[in-house]
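Continued from yesterday's entry.
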Amino acid sequence: MQQLEHPSEETWDERRLWFEEHRQAAASQGVGRLSEQAEALVIEMQTTFCAGAWAATVLLAAAVVDAQEFHRGYPESRSSEDRSWLRGLRNSLLHENRSQPAFTIEDHWTRREEWGRHARRAVRMAFDVLYALNQGGRRK
C-alpha cells in the first residue's frame, strides 16, 4: 500500500516545497509571530502533509482554523463556503456515518488524488486564518 510506504525523497521534497511556498505567501502579508501552539500545529500539519496522510492533514488544518477562529473570529478573506466545506469534511471524518463513510480503505487507492486536493485546500485555509488573524483586519 503506497500510503504505508515512506514517500520517496523527491515526493517528500515536492510536498515540503509546496507547503513552505504557501506558508511563505500567507506569512508575507505582514504577520507577526505565531503562538507556540499554533507553530507546533503547523509543524505537525506539515509532517502529515509531506507523508501524504491526507485525512490527518485535513483534521489538523481544521483544528488550526477552529482554534484561531475561537479566539479571534473568521477572516473576511475566506468565504463562508470554504468555512462550511472544511467544517463539513472535518465533521464527516470525526463523526462516522457507518452506512456512508466519508473516508474508506479503498480511498487510499482510488481517491488519493482527490484527498490530496482536499488536504491542499485545507492547508491554504489554515494559513489564511493563521496569518490573516494576526493582521488585525476585519472579521466575519
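--- second protein ---
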Amino acid sequence: MDKLKKIYKLSLIALLIIVIFSIYFAYQCFEDEQTAKQQMTELSSQMQQLQQKIIKNNQIITDNELSKHELENQSISRQEQINEQLKDNDCANRLIPMPISGSMYNRAKSLRESANPSKSTQ
C-alpha cells in the first residue's frame, strides 16, 4: 500500500508538472501570436506609407515629364520662329569672318555645356 501511495503521489506531481508546462507553453504561444499581430499591423502601416510616397513620387515624375515636353515644344517653336526670321534676313546669308565665327561657336558651345548638367558632371 505504501508503494501504491508513492506511485500515486509521483503521478500527481508528474501530472502537475505537465499541466504547468502546458500552461506556460500556451501562454508563450499566445504572447508570440500577439507580438506577430502587432508587427503585422506596423508593417502594414509602413507599407501604406510607402505606397503613398510612391504615388506622390510618380505624380511628381509625371508632372516633370509633362513640363519637360512643354519646354521642348516651346523651344522647338521658338527655334522655328528664329529660323523663319533668319530665312528672310539678309545678314543671315552673309559670311562671317573666321575668327568671329569661331569665337561665336565656342561661346555657344560653352553655354550649351553649362546648361546641360549631365555633361558637366561627367
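The chain has three helices and no strands. Residues 2-87 form the longest helix (86 residues). Will compare against the first tomorrow.
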